[in-house]
């Protein structure tokens, strides 16, 4: 597949080399920040930086939008694609329908559309992530595009799913809970220890063991512990009193504890 | 040290063998459920089950309370200890002062008191946890007891801290946030996927990678991602709309997102 990347951030950094290693050909990389596209191109075989969003003369068939959700519509409105192009976005939170609508409005030629969502968190780094264990959630505007995306997905990953935009939304909300919110709880826990001149390192072993247990369980509910799980209202009251001078954190503690108590009928 | 355990639950299951391996001697194990004390005793050299809370004739010096917080006062009120005994609890959430007060009320003889809090989550299992990497948070009513507990702690762990009850409270609240609440978020994420007939396994790679990054960072805030971190209000609104039929979960989503936005000024 002849491919161009629009966006040279964390995802493109890992996905472009993975596609090349699977035998695909990256022609062009566009980024608002030329330095980013230059960096990415330097890791690819013979891709070039592309300085604008006019791809009318591009040799590529597949155009991969790897930009932030906020930038998607703006990019689509300025994008010029060749005949018979396939345009996919890589977002967990945006529907396929929206992309179809935008291209119906903004594009002079008909465009095949799709979603190529890699359910993983990416950070630019020295090494490239192996994609074979990363779930790919695919969706397409038509059967031919779907088959092309599935084939390309299977070239790089063992876990390829056809997922509707609604299902992808559920996965995205679930990932926000299980990933973004959990990481923020680590931040809040760290601040509590630091405030009392304690070392966050004291908590690392119990956090590591909790994560290990939670992921090893077929259902994390089986290994839930703590005062809310036990319905230990005395400890919950003590903790809320301890947090009295941080009302926002106390509210968060209350809401999470209520959710646990409700879940286990305590 | 000659030791008796009061309680034969998850902590005692791991701590008693660890103390034996370090050369200490477990004489007796009491549990309300005889089956539990029998199980634990079967893993120890020559300990016996003890059928009541009268330890007046016990050869032990140290008595380790390894019971749930809720049961602590009731157990203390019925406990009969020999002269010059040391009584420690193993709870993250209870103060040393409370134990001192209870024993002043309930015990006929003066008792040295202390706290021997292992900052880890324990589950009975086939193998025993190595204690050398588990932080021990110790506290004692007097200098001699403190020295004995520190020495015993250092026999089994490389990470021994003298921690006040207030500091232990901060650690305990932080551990509830970073461990109990995070595990519950995994449960909630699993339910969202199952509700849409999706497999929770799809989320395991991104959760594992998030945890890896969060624990590898010196500050988890450095690797925070997601719509709230970006201040992406459109996605947050979409997610809240998606959760409209689950008001409690929507409230939790809102409170967590607000906390993240507030933290990063978004």
TrEMBL record, chains A, B:
Residues 3-100 form the Putative oxidoreductase/dehydrogenase Rossmann-like domain. InterPro entries: 6-PGluconate_DH-like_C_sf (IPR008927), DUF2520 (IPR018931), NAD(P)-bd_dom_sf (IPR036291), OxRdtase/DH_put_Rossmann_dom (IPR019665), TM1727-like_C_sf (IPR037108). Pfam families: DUF2520, Rossmann-like. Residues 134-259 form the DUF2520 domain. SUPFAM superfamilies: 6-phosphogluconate dehydrogenase C-terminal domain-like, NAD(P)-binding Rossmann-fold domains. This is Predicted oxidoreductase, contains short-chain dehydrogenase (SDR) and DUF2520 domains.
């Amino acid at each position: 597949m002849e491919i161009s990347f629009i966006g040279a951030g964390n995802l493109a950094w890992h996905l472009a080399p993975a596609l090349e290693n699977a035998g695909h050909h990256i022609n062009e990389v566009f980024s608002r920040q030329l330095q980013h596209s230059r960096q990415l191109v330097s890791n690819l075989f013979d891709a070039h930086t592309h300085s604008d969003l006019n791809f009318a003369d591009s040799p590529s068939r597949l155009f991969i939008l790897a930009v932030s959700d906020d930038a998607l519509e703006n990019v689509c409105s300025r994008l010029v694609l060749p005949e018979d192009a396939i345009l996919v976005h890589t977002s967990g939170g945006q529907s396929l329908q929206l992309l179809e609508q935008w291209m119906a409005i903004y594009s002079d030629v008909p465009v095949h559309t799709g979603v190529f969502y890699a359910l993983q968190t990416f950070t630019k780094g020295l090494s490239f992530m192996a994609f074979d264990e990363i779930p790919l959630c695919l969706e397409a505007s038509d059967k031919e595009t779907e088959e092309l995306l599935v084939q390309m997905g299977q070239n790089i990953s063992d876990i390829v799913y056809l997922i509707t935009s609604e299902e992808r939304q559920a996965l995205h909300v679930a990932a926000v809970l299980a990933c973004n919110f959990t990481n923020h709880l680590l931040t809040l826990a760290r601040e509590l220890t630091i405030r009392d001149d304690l070392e966050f390192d004291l908590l690392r072993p119990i956090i590591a063991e909790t994560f290990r247990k939670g992921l090893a369980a077929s259902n994390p509910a089986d290994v839930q512990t703590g005062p809310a799980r036990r319905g230990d209202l005395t400890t919950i009251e003590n903790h809320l009193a301890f947090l009295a001078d941080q009302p926002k954190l106390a509210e968060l503690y209350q809401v999470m504890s209520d959710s646990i108590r409700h879940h286990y009928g305590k």
